[in-house]
Structure formats: C-alpha cells, structure tokens
Amino acid sequence: MAFVNAPSLLLLADAASSTVQETSETLRQASDVFDDLAGPIQVALFLGALSFTTAILVSATAFTRIVIVMSFVRRALSTQEIPPNQVMLGLSLFLTFFIMAPTFDRIHDRAIKPFLEAKATESEEEPLKFEFVKAAEIATSELKTFMLYNTRRADLQLFYELADTPPPSQREATPLKIAVPAFIISELKTAFIMGFCIYIPFMLIDLVISTILMALGMMMMPPVVVSTPCKLLLFVMVDGWQLISRALVASFA
C-alpha cells in the first residue's frame, strides 16, 4: 500500500471517526423510527429486509467460490444436469455454513447474545445497555474481517484507485464500499483458478479418447459417449467429492 505520512493519518483518523459517529447516529434514528411504527408495518419491513439475505450470502460469504467450483466440477465431468441444481446449491450452502461457522459463532457471542440479554433485562427505569446499532456494527466488523482475510491486496488497491481514496494505515479500517467488491472479484478469480485446475485432468481424458477413436476410424462416434464413463470412474476412484470439499475448505483463511 502507498505510504501515508503522520498528518495524513491524523486527518484520515478524524474523518473515519466522524463518519462512524454519523453512521451510528443515523442507525439509532432509524431504529427509533422503526420502534415507533405499528406492528404490521414492522413485520412487513422485516420480511422485505429478508430479501437482502441472498445478496449478503453471495457478496459477503464463501458461497460464491463454492458454487462456481461445484459448477466447474459438473461441467468437467460432462454429466449435464447431474447432480441436479438443487443438490449442488444445497451442498454449496451447507459448505458455506461450515466454513463461516467460526465467523457466525463470533457474531453470536459478541453481538446477538449480548443484545438479546440486554433486551430481556430492559426496563423503563434502566435503558438498554447493548443497543441494536452496536450489535449491527460488531456483526458487520466480523464479516468484514473474514472478507479482508480472503481478499487479495491487488483487488483492494484497485478499488482504492477507482474511488480515488488513499488506503488507511490499517487494513481493518477498509470501508465496506471497497471491501465488498474487492472480495467478490477476488473470489471469482480464485474460483476460476480452481476450476481450471479441475478441468485439466478431465480434458486430458477427452483428448486421449478422441485420439483413440480417430485411430480406430470411429470418427462418427462422439468422444463424450466414451469419455464420460471414464471420467466418472476416475472421479469415483480418487474420491473426488471429498477432495473437492477438502480443497474448498482449506482455500479459505
């Protein structure tokens, strides 16, 4: 990252502090407005907010890398729609929960659990000690930590340059508007690299089968008819699903 002198660091720290304070105040005001709404309107807003869970799942967790690699595996095996999309998505989802379990546990212990305990002991005489805004900030910070650990520095630097913003002295101070897109393109690059490595052995099988068929004069016979059983046999013999799952889990920091 670019070198930042001490006065610039002080200015950046002051700007970041003021931004955090303004964001916290805005969230508190929004929380007060939400509490003042009628019950049915709160339920409607809550159900509407659930529609954003898909975007969070794709953009801030391990799901993107896993589902892309799984798609590469199915294409490399030339099995068309086997395994079905529902099976692939289900496996990708539960692998995501497995990989994200430490992050989710920290969010539960540091944000959700204290907030629920404070909410249970809340009374008119004693105000809420652990507000929803603080819980949201902790949960966001934990997700951002996971994203930064799995994001390449070059991708972060790209979005700092596009935003015309100097990088902070500490990586943890990266704003979400830069951390999220950098994390996504970093995940895409990693998934495509893993997909390329998966394709190589199966492509060699296709080349060998095609060469053998041409040598036998069976040029009218599609090579995929013969190569697909061979690729399935190889994949089963090396216990491919276990290797893919192990590689995916080990690829995350």
From TrEMBL:
Family annotation (InterPro entries): FliP, T3SS_IM_P
Pfam families: FliP
Keywords, ordered alphabetically: Bacterial flagellum, Bacterial flagellum biogenesis, Bacterial flagellum protein export, Cell membrane, Cell projection, Cilium, Flagellum, Membrane, Protein transport, Transmembrane, Transmembrane helix, Transport
Taxonomy, superkingdom: Bacteria
Lipid bilayer topology: Multi-pass membrane protein
Secretion signal span: none
Subcellular localization(s) per the UniProt record: Cell membrane; Bacterial flagellum basal body
GO biological process: bacterial-type flagellum organization; protein secretion
Family per similarity comment: Belongs to the FliP/MopC/SpaP family.
Function: Plays a role in the flagellum-specific transport system.
Protein name: Flagellar biosynthetic protein FliP
Gene, per the UniProt record: fliP_2
